[in-house]
Amino acid sequence: MLSKRIIPCLDVRAGKLTKGIRFKGNVDIGDPVEAAREYYDQGADEIVFYDITASSDERNIMIDVVERVARTIFIPFSVGGGIRNLDDMRKVILAGAEKVSVNSAAVVNPEIITEGAGAFGSQCIVLGMDVKEVEKTKKIPSGYEIVIHGGRKFTGIDALWWAREAERLGAGEICLNSIDADGTQDGYELNLTALISENVHIPVIASGGAGKPEHLAAVLTTGKADAALIASMVHYRTYTIAGIKQYLHEHQIKTRMSW
To answer: What global pTM score does this model have?
Structure first.
């Protein structure tokens, strides 16, 4: 059994670590570089960095913050937000990231996935999916729709179809975020996570809703996710990554232990 990964997510706005609920009401809560180092020291398996307003503001990602984080940690580091083309990917990788996450840009131009995989390898290309539960229709048979631009624009694209299509285009991993669960700390969207995990052959990172270690245990087993993204439960120091991993270990869920 492969080890499950625990991945803190740093949402960054104007250079500050920020957190909201269901993509709304964001408040600044600290410095992303300091947070990245703290989570690295606690035993994080990877770090994810999202410049959450780069796409909606139509500006480039803050490379200086990426460089500062990359100098601070020595684990895989994924960066998303404002990546629109191959040159943007190259800048982020040269700044120290091991992976790039494309979300809105991939919906607008799916070939960016293929181009990125061809240039840097599929293992570097993460498809970010922001998903909202909607009424099942002929157009959205799964009942889950892709939403882009930080939760602001519905696309009419079925989430299950898009996950399969992105894998076909060359994505090496999917970061699956439930807008409905995001920031609530009430638990991950298990039905959505299992649906995607069971229908693709690449790793799926569950995102949105983590509030206690039991939630991670559920999404890594019932939800069949390969990894779990966490934010509020560590940002507000309710839990540590080491403590979460200890809980999972006690419940026979394998993670990379740092002790």
So the answer is: 0.90
- Reference 112, options 187, 38, 57, 171; nearest CA is 171
Among 127, 126, 169, 163, smallest CA distance to 145 is for: 163
Residues with active-site annotation: 11, 130
Q: Is residue 32 one of the residues assigned to a domain?
A: yes
Q: Are 118 and 170 in contact (CB under 8 A)?
A: yes
Strands of the chain, DSSP E: 5-13, 16-21, 24-30, 47-51, 77-80, 99-102, 125-133, 144-148, 153-158, 173-178, 204-207, 227-230
Nearest 5°: the CA angle 250, 254, 256 is 110
What pLDDT, in 10s, does the model give residues 213-244?
Answer: 999 999 999 999 999 999 889 988 999 999 99
Question: What CATH number should be reported for the domain holding residue 69?
Answer: 3.20.20.70
Which range marks the domain in which residue 183 is found? 5-250
Residue 180 CB partners (closer than 8 Å, separation 6+) = 22, 132, 133, 189, 208
